[in-house]
Design a protein that fits this description.
It comes from Dietzia lutea. By secondary structure, the protein is of the alpha+beta class. The chain has helices at about 10-20, 35-55, 60-65, 75-90, 105-140, 145-155, 295-330, 350-385, 385-425, 435-440, 450-460, 465-490, 490-515, 520-525, 530-550, 555-560, 570-575, 585-605, 605-615, and strands spanning about 65-70, 70-75, 160-165, 180-185, 190-195, 200, 210-215, 225-235, 235, 245, 250-255, 265-270, 285.
Length: about 625
């Protein structure tokens, strides 16, 4: 496998430099030690490490699941070796503050680097994803002592981190968790309970594991208002940073999964008495911040994790696309309709239906990658922009986060499905990676907030927050893009004209639904998933117009050469696939972008019309369905 079968460096460079202009961020104080050269060097390093240490055990980690032996979990050694190389390269803290050992790399560049690892082996890359999320939460909400004891060792790669939210009876509904935290005279807490679905909960790849645990203190308010957040390390950490007693948190079972098998998924039990720190049972926990503020703090980690999940889904879809494209380019099969049967077979890419499947994948994965990196740029602007830029970035990021998590999780999974189909029977075997990519990616619409929960978050909170400020920010940006496209003229203006009326419709539908919500909250959210999916398609269409505008005159050039609307099919296939017929790589890249944008705007965007119609019709088919009718 080569890096070109993991991600497209040309696409990453275009998005980072031509569109998002990430080098401009180095003019800001936080990123002053970086330049385009350092950013590209870290990208080069990430691609090399992903290919050399992550990709080779992609299949082995799937076939050799984690094993629980006593209290310990056994994993294949290649996972630990890959994570050690990742830590040695200072990538755990790449985007974190230099004061704690981080590199202060722009978050936009950091996510682009992580795409390589997610594409190479998502189940191994999940460990640093969880660890960085854990560390960032403590950097935001932890005390200086907590940062020294737990964050700095995580950045060094000595400790790893988890997030312990769900319980056997309380998955998405955290209001019903029962893990309790009993205050102690010394200011610590003793935790008792059981958690479920905890990734990275036990292994031997680090000196310590830092669990962030949601629990309730006796007498706390009911529901989510009474949730507090605690650090519960596997080993207690002494004041000098050395490891102390084994804490009373043990793994009592593993979950065996459809995919993501290299990421151990555990059932931790706290306070069972298997260990007795300080001579008595109970897992020792350290409160983060104040009591009853835990869920709000955890969302710091969860919002970051949601962007990571979306990018992970994108990367899995992207590598599946590239691998199916490579197969189709090298697999002779059949002949065009009407061809002489005595002539040689042609490659799969010569068949129109295969082109359709490849073009659909391209439109999904390249659109999703652009969205993910755009959201990362908003994170950078929120952190380092002027007060006005920071506020605007946060408003837009809040409304885009559920889309950036859910849209790639849905549509890059669809890309993986199409990749299997391109390979045909071969794609259904373990001899090719695409079937595992599908299984791995199937998790992403589920964890870190299910697809349905993202819809409720978008419609029920994000677009109506601040009197509709989030929706206004989003639609204002999209409308401004359409205005720029109209000025540019040509095919870009034509495609933007397909988007503009859908933006108007989005505003109208949201307004109508908000009126329903004033009197019937259940009906308001009944079809929140339909709203999420329609809005997501509008957003991706906007992102595609943005990419065409960033290409500038290159779109005009390839359109004049016949690669855009009205060009012949064979020329378009060559442009989408490679340089072909003497065309430059730059022309082929631009032509491929244009064709993918055309595909999405003409063939995918129209599906939102039926969804918008359904939403304003107030259809009650699902709402009025009864349990005994199933």
């Amino acid at each position: 496998m080569t890096p070109s079968h993991l991600m497209s460096r040309a696409d990453l460079d275009f998005l980072l430099h031509d569109w998002l202009r990430v080098s401009e961020l180095t003019g800001r104080e936080r990123y002053a030690d970086h330049s385009r050269e350092t950013i590209e060097a870290v990208l080069d390093l990430s691609a090399e490490l992903a290919e050399t240490y992550f990709a080779p055990h992609f299949r082995k980690a799937d076939l050799t699941e984690p094993r629980l032996v006593g209290e310990e979990v056994e994993l294949i050694p290649e996972i630990g070796e890959a994570l050690a190389k990742f830590a040695e390269a200072d990538l755990v803290g790449a985007a974190m503050d230099s004061r704690v050992g981080g590199l202060q790399l722009p978050y936009t560049a950091y996510l682009a680097c992580m795409a390589w690892f997610y594409a190479a082996n998502i189940s191994t890359a999940a460990y640093p994803l969880l660890t960085t999320g854990n560390a960032n939460l403590l950097l935001t909400h932890g005390s200086d002592e907590q940062i020294r004891k737990y964050v700095e060792p995580m950045i060094q790669g000595r400790f790893t981190g988890t997030m312990c939210l769900s319980e056997p009876h309380a998955g998405s509904n955290l209001a019903d968790i029962t893990t309790r935290a009993e205050p102690q005279p010394d200011g610590t807490y003793r935790l008792f309970g059981q958690k479920m679905w905890i990734s990275g909960g036990e292994h031997q790849m680090a000196e310590n594991i830092v669990h962030l645990v949601l629990a309730k203190v006796p007498g706390s308010p009911p529901g989510t208002r009474g949730i507090s957040l605690f650090i519960v390390p596997k080993f207690l950490v002494d004041d000098d940073g050395s490891l102390g007693e084994r804490n009373d948190i043990v793994i009592t079972g593993l979950n065996h999964k459809m995919g993501f098998r290299g990421t151990v998924n555990t059932m931790p039990t706290l306070g069972q008495g298997m260990h007795a720190p300080g001579g008595r049972p109970g897992a020792v926990g350290y409160l983060v911040g104040e009591e009853n503020t835990g869920l709000k703090k955890m969302f710091t980690m969860m919002n970051e994790a949601r962007l990571g999940v979306g990018l992970g889904a994108t990367a899995i879809g992207y590598t599946g696309y590239l691998k199916s494209l490579d197969y189709a380019r090298n697999r002779p099969q059949g002949r065009p309709a009407g061809a002489d049967p005595s002539t040689p077979q042609v490659m799969l890419t010569r068949h129109t239906d295969v082109r359709r499947m490849l073009l659909a994948q391209k439109s999904y994965v390249e659109g999703a990658l652009a969205l993910g990196l755009f959201c990362a740029r908003l994170v950078d602007d929120e952190k380092t922009g002027t007060p006005e830029e920071s506020t605007a970035a946060k408003t837009l990021l809040d409304v885009l986060t559920p889309i950036a998590k859910s849209w790639p999780s849905q549509w890059c999974l669809k890309a993986n499905e199409l990749a299997v189909q391109v390979l045909g029977g071969a794609g259904y075997t373990i001899d090719y990676d695409v079937e595992q990519h599908y299984r791995d990616n199937r998790l992403n619409p589920i964890h870190e907030g299910t697809h349905g929960i993202q819809g409720q978050d978008l419609l029920g909170r994000k677009v109506v927050a601040g009197g509709g400020a989030g929706l206004a920010a989003l639609t204002g940006r999209i409308t401004a893009t359409c205005d720029r496209a109209a000025t540019a003229g040509g095919v870009v203006a034509e495609l933007a004209s397909l988007l503009r009326p859908r933006v108007t419709r989005l505003i109208e539908v949201t307004t109508a639904l908000a009126e329903v919500g004033a009197t019937d909250p259940e009906a308001f959210l009944a079809d929140a998933t339909e709203y999420l999916e329609a809005t997501g398609h509008v957003v991706i269409a906007w992102i595609w117009i943005e990419q065409l505008l960033a290409l500038g005159d290159r779109v005009t050039a390839v359109t004049a050469a016949g690669a855009g609307a009205g060009g012949d099919g064979e020329g378009g296939a060559r442009d989408a696939g490679g340089a072909g017929d003497g065309a430059s790589a730059s022309d082929a890249f631009a032509a491929g972008k244009l064709r993918a944008a055309e595909y999405f705007l003409r063939r995918e965007l129209p599906i939102v019309d039926a969804k918008f119609d359904l939403l304003v019709a107030g259809d009650r088919t699902t709402l009025d369905m009864r349990d005994d009718w199933f």
